[in-house]
Amino acid sequence: MSQALVKTAAGWLLGLMLAATAAIVSVNLVSNSVASPQQPVREYIEALKDGDGETALGLLKATVPNSSAAMLDGSALQTAAAKINDVKLGNAQRRAGNQVMVPMEYTIDGVEHRTEFMLERTGTEWLFFGKWSFVPSALPTVDVTVVNSNEATMNGVPVNMPDGRNTFAVFYPGEYEASLTGELFAANPSKVTVTNGDAAQVPLDLLTKATDKMNQAVAAKVKEFLDTCAAEATQQQRLQPDCPFYHTTSSRVVDGTIKWEITEYPKISIEPFDGRWVVAPLNGKARVTAREIDLYTGFVLNLNEDHDFSFTTRLEIGEGTVTVVPLLSL
């Protein structure tokens, strides 16, 4: 009986030891995974990739500065986090008090980056497991400017740009790209990678330029004006028409022989100036031909002369319309 009891007790003791060992192992596994300081970071990155700004903001415990919130949710946020790859979370490093720093290494567009997240222990769950939360902070911002436009695109989302500028609150890490795409005016994309919440971010400046379509539209209207002017000057037989070009002579011109033509059309350059768009001075060449009689000799000569000309215009841009108003000095 005594040997049987000893064997039974030994069996129970071994079972208890195995159970205790398993419990310790389980506690350690849970503490190093779902109850670890790294777990809130994993959930935060997942929320960013899902475009779930509400969850991400709640996890990060961040305040939103006085700025546009257009980048804090939906497709704009998904786009910002879409290129976060090769994520590796390091071991938590102790800091003052109950705080730890969790490093995260990753790549964006193939470039290696590192972000350090500060977390703090806020309690214990189920007696054994630590409860971790981000240390409260404020979201960083990205300043965007655009020349002569009250709108732009950020991460594929149309955004308002009052007086050509705006400030956007953003999550980190992430990539933010501003651009302006239009039929008449456009700007090349400009982007910045935000890796932390406390460093000043490089501003995104969009240098708006006239598109080829805009330049071609203005060039066509300038050409139409000059061709019409030359045709009317020829029809009216005028050497000094109401045009940018003219000819003076002391000889008498034979009636019906005057002909004007444009030999070199101006090159179009549209630039921003004082909040509007202006066309740079237009320079070209016009040729006049005619038959003229020298008043001293009486000889009839052929007139064939090229004249440089220059003039300015006023550009009026409406809803889908472009008007070019020539400004001629009288």
Structure, explained:
With 330 residues, the protein is α+β, with helices and mostly antiparallel strands. It folds into three domains: 25-138, Nuclear Transport Factor 2, Chain: A; 141-210, Carboxypeptidase-like, regulatory domain (Immunoglobulin-like); 212-327, no CATH class. Helix content is 25%, strand content 41%. It contains five helices and 22 strands. The strands form six sheets. Strands 2, 3, 4, 5 and 6 form a five-stranded antiparallel beta sheet that branches. A hairpin with a 4-residue loop joins strand 21 (300-317) and strand 22 (322-327). It is rod-shaped. Mean pLDDT is 90; it is low at 18-33.
List the helices and strands and how they pair.
Elements: H1 2-31, H2 38-50, H3 53-60, E1 62-63, H4 74-81, E2 84-89, E3 93-94, E4 99-108, E5 111-125, E6 129-134, E7 137-138, E8 141-146, E9 151-154, E10 157-160, E11 165-169, E12 174-180, E13 185-194, E14 204-206, E15 209-210, H5 212-236, E16 252-253, E17 259-264, E18 270-273, E19 276-279, E20 282-293, E21 300-317, E22 322-327
Parallel strand pairs: 1-7, 8-14
Antiparallel strand pairs: 2-4, 3-4, 4-5, 5-6, 8-11, 9-10, 9-12, 12-13, 13-15, 16-20, 17-20, 18-19, 20-21, 21-22
